[in-house]
Specification:
Layout lengths: L2 H26 L2 H14 L2 H5 L2 E3 L8 H13 L1 H17 L9 E9 L3 E8 L2 E6 L6 E6 L4 E2 L7 E5 L2 E11 L2 E11 L4 E5 L2 H7 L1 H22 L13 H17 L3 E23 L2 E18 L6 E2 L2 E12 L4 E10 L12 E5 L6 E4 L11
Amino acid sequence: MNKKSLIIIPAVILLLVIGGVFFALKQSASPEKTVDVLKKAVADDDPALLQDVIVTDNKQAAVNKTAVQALIAYLKENSSSYDAIKEGLEEQINEGDYTSTSQQISLTEDGKKWGLFPQYKLKVKTAVIKVTGQNEDDRVSLTAGKSDQAIKKQKDNKYGPVIPGIYQLKVKVINDLGTFEKKEKKEVWGSSEVSVVIDSNALASSDKGVQKAVMKAMDMFNNDIVVYQTSGFDKTKLTNVTDEVLEGSLSLQESFEAVKDYIDEIHAQYEGAVVNLDDLSVHHFDGRWSADVTALTAYNNKVKYRNVQEFEDTSFKSVNTYSLFYDQSKKKWLINDVKSREPGNQEADYWKNKQEMKMSSPPVLKWKREGSPGTEVPL
């Protein structure tokens, strides 16, 4: 073997090696390989495999783990859509056409791989999520996934853009009454905009903290009524009412002044209440929060009239509907109105969702006319 042969043989081997490497590199950059990555990522439920091969029709869309997990979740749950996507990708490969299609996911050329071969990626159509139903004073944020990945807020209460998929959304609403959350599973597919509807009134009405605050205001008013009655109807004893109620109470004080000389004593005791939670509602209108709640209340009252030996029992039970306003400056609920009616036969027993508000030993408060004879009669 001459020297020329010794040179040719290694050269041929080198060319074969280079050719093999070239073919392998070309295959790894083929559109089929990109489709295989999609199939494996869906089969293995592995968003990390898919992140690097996705491009979006809107560069502002995030292609993070949460978003890609949402895409995989949709394809796994919607086999018909997934089959249609795979058929569309195969059609693109057969036709060698990698321009945008009407599909949610399509193949597209995205630069060169290693500076030599066309690089194929999956181009996805994005959408925005519009949040509706909130009040004008609500501050709203939107997150997705277990990690509460924030979704960027745009104008007009739109969030995104996001890639298609099934998202586990969490809407957070902050307003004067507190912070509320709504969770919702939302499909983003086949439309450039999807809606999430929130009901701030319903969120506040069902919130345990808001319910507790409304009932506390109601209970405080019921306790104040006893103090009010036994103070000569002094309106300053009503500590959590609106100015409208205070103005209306002036006539009661004047009426009592006119008749008090005919009364020796007034005894009053607030026994407690049973609240119908199914009839507790919170509303927002014209920039103001209001609430309504119904309760069965019980009072043990006795009155001794002048020159009458015995006390007259004036105890009563009533079903009251309390209307309240939330005072933003005072950060508390105020009673604005109370409507009363006679309770039906064992009415509260039929309330399915109720809360008892009773003290073990409620105090008995008394008013006594100056100069009247002392009389002690237990309630």
